[in-house]
User: Which sequence fits this backbone?
């Protein structure tokens, strides 16, 4: 030992004298058990330096509500495993080719370094490596920790300064961990090519097996790949596969030379084909069974401060965290939505239908479906954005929600004391009597006396809150909004989570009640879910829990508030349930259990909607042309193989909603709505025909039209 140490010292001194900055300074620890520092390293002040080891980037797995995997996110495709989950032959292969004296030396292999040093001194640079597995681990940690190009270049720099730095870190690593722990860390951090980081991901990517089941030939292949994984990447073509095959055989020969295997075993393994399977790497949302919901989850994490204070922190949390994210999506309900949409609208149709299902009382999103697949293939008319959600969650501008917004005016009227059978006599057209008829929430006069609103789905005459809603009478709701106040209606809508899909401010014009704002199905379904929950609004919720890489589970609870008086919600539900029996959905019919809802159609059938709910589930369906709904209206058009002169809310969205709800709620006991407080709201809404207005109780309320008060306690 003494003569070897003296040789090392002499070589080190010669290197320094030659001006090569500590050329052989990679010489700290020698010997196996009881390793010690050589005198030269002490003279040059080489001391261990603590290595910062941030957690490895690991893939995040997304689960549905039943625990099935539905998507994966990652910066590096990696699955960390313990050393006992790696086959013995894999350990032998990697040690044989990379550092055959790994269990015998300290931070570096003196013999290997001596050989490399002699070569380097002769060439005047780094011509040959002599890195131990520990040093290689250090290099990979520095590379994986790099956040800038400068840091990455420094981690790969061919210089003695880098080698010295690595050595100091390696010394500290050897002091901190056992050899088995170091080998485990190395096998999990190493890049093997084909997008696979770590031995487990590589085993699955290359051969479709776990690291525990690697054969001799497979193990030798992976061990050979780590030297230059890009040059031997089998996913790149025949040339790279041939190089990988050569490297495999080099490893097998080395294992035989070291007596780790027999020559016969080596020859038999070399006779095998490469066997690369190229098992697909688990994809993101593009390959998910539920791509639109997947996009929603991804963007929820990236945009929500609950998951990180900065955008960068949230991105690393998602793509590097090795999380298991359990979500709210229900496979049965998702299938129901997918099936219903595909029954009525084809993927090849120009208009696209989309639907969201939300659970009242929690805001949990149970399904997100669309008539088109997600993707970028224009020939197949794939959607490149989340047509079911808002822009924050990967969506677009949305579609005008039409008469589904009349519900917010109805709620406002009930909250202000109007009864179910209160109403007005209206004509077939409505024109604001003066500019100050409507004021937005800034107090500005925004009425347009020159514009006449006409009825698309209902005629004139006396209309109560019930009959006006059932017939979706535009002129009635314009007069009703005038009476209760535009700003109050806007506030009601906002309290139920209503916001534009594109993220811009709501347009507060007199036609607000007619649904002039662009919406997405998740937002509308969630607003209607709040009515089904007796006015309890809960923010849309897609994530129920997250388990981190260490097994710590964080559970996310619904974020709810009482947005609407429960009795007001009950009265609205009572009226809206009549839409199926006496209103615009009577031709479609109900779902065999208590349900309520509202059709929606915009001017000249640019878009069509249906939003409805039970106490157990709410849903909203929209249909429109993503090329531009205003210029590509739903008139004289074939959709789902059927010709339509004009598409209304009850034409396609209503039937989709009905089919979805019947299937989604199959086996779920029906829940009744809470009965109306008749002493407060009078009438009987959907349960009977309202009385005619009582003429003696007519009166001018000063708003330019007469209010008729219906019978009280039918």
Assistant:
């Amino acid at each position: 030992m003494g003569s070897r140490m003296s040789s090392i010292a002499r070589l080190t001194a010669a290197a320094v004298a030659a001006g090569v900055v500590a050329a052989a300074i990679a010489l700290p620890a020698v010997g196996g058990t009881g390793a010690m520092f050589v005198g030269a390293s002490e003279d040059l002040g080489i001391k261990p330096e603590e290595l910062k080891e941030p957690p490895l980037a690991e893939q995040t797995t997304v689960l549905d509500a039943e625990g099935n995997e539905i998507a994966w996110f990652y910066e590096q495709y990696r699955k960390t495993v313990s050393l006992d989950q790696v086959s013995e032959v894999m350990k032998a292969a990697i040690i044989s080719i990379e550092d055959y004296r790994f269990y015998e030396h300290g931070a570096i292999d003196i013999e290997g370094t001596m050989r490399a040093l002699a070569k380097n001194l002769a060439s005047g640079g780094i011509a040959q490596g002599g890195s131990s597995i520990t040093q290689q681990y250090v290099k990979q940690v520095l590379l994986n920790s790099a956040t800038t190009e400068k840091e990455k270049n420094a981690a790969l720099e061919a210089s003695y300064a880098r080698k010295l730095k690595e050595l100091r870190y390696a010394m500290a690593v050897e002091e901190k961990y056992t050899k088995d722990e170091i080998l485990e860390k190395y096998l999990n951090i190493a890049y093997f090519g084909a997008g696979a980081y770590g031995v487990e991901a590589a085993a699955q990517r290359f051969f479709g097996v776990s690291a525990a089941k690697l054969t001799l030939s497979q193990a030798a292949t992976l061990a050979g790949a780590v030297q230059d994984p890009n040059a031997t990447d089998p996913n790149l073509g025949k040339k790279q596969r041939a190089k990988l095959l050569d490297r495999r055989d080099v490893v097998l020969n080395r294992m035989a030379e070291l007596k780790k295997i027999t020559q016969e075993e080596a020859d038999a393994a070399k006779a095998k084909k490469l066997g690369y399977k190229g098992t697909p790497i688990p994809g993101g949302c593009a390959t998910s069974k539920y791509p639109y919901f997947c996009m929603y989850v991804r963007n929820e994490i990236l945009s929500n401060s609950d998951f990180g204070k900065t955008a960068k922190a949230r991105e690393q949390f998602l793509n590097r965290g090795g999380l298991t994210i359990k979500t709210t999506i229900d496979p049965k309900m998702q299938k129901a939505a997918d099936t219903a949409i595909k029954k009525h609208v084809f993927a090849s149709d120009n208009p696209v239908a989309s639907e969201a299902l939300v659970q009242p009382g929690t805001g949990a999103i149970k399904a997100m479906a669309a008539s088109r697949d997600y993707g970028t293939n224009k020939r197949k008319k794939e959607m490149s954005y989340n047509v079911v959600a808002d822009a924050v969650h990967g969506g677009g501008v949305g579609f005008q929600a039409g008469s589904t917004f009349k519900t917010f005016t109805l709620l406002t009227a009930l909250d202000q004391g109007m009864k179910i059978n209160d109403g007005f006599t209206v004509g077939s057209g409505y024109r604001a009597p003066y500019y100050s008829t409507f004021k937005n929430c800034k107090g500005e006069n925004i009425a347009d006396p020159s514009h006449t609103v006409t009825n698309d789905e209902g005629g004139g005459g006396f209309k109560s809150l019930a009959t006006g809603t059932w017939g979706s009478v535009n002129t009635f709701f314009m007069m009703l909004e005038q009476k209760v106040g535009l700003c109050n209606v806007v506030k009601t809508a906002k309290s139920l989570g209503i916001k534009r899909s594109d993220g811009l401010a709501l347009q507060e014009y007199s036609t607000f009640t007619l649904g002039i704002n662009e919406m997405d199905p998740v937002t509308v379904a969630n607003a209607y879910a709040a009515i089904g929950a007796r006015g309890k609004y809960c923010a849309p919720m897609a994530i129920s829990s997250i388990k981190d890489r260490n097994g710590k589970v964080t559970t996310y609870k619904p974020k709810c508030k009482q947005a609407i008086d429960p009795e007001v919600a009950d009265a609205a539900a009572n009226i809206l349930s009549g839409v199926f029996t006496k209103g615009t959905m009577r031709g479609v019919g109900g779902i065999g259990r208590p349900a309520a809802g509202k059709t929606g159609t915009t001017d000249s059938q640019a878009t069509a909607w249906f939003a409805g709910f039970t106490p157990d589930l709410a849903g909203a369906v929209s249909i429109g042309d993503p090329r531009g709904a205003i210029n590509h209206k739903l008139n004289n058009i074939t959709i789902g193989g059927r010709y339509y002169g004009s598409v209304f809310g009850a034409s396609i969205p209503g039937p989709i909603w009905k089919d979805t709800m019947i299937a989604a709620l199959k086996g779920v006991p029906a829940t009744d709505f809470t009965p109306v407080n008749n002493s407060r709201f009078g009438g009987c809404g959907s349960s009977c025909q309202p009385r005619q207005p009582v003429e003696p109780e007519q009166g001018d309320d000063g708003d330019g039209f007469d209010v008729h008060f219906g019978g009280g306690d039918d």
In short: The chain has 23 helices and 27 strands. The first strand starts at residue 29 and ends at 30.
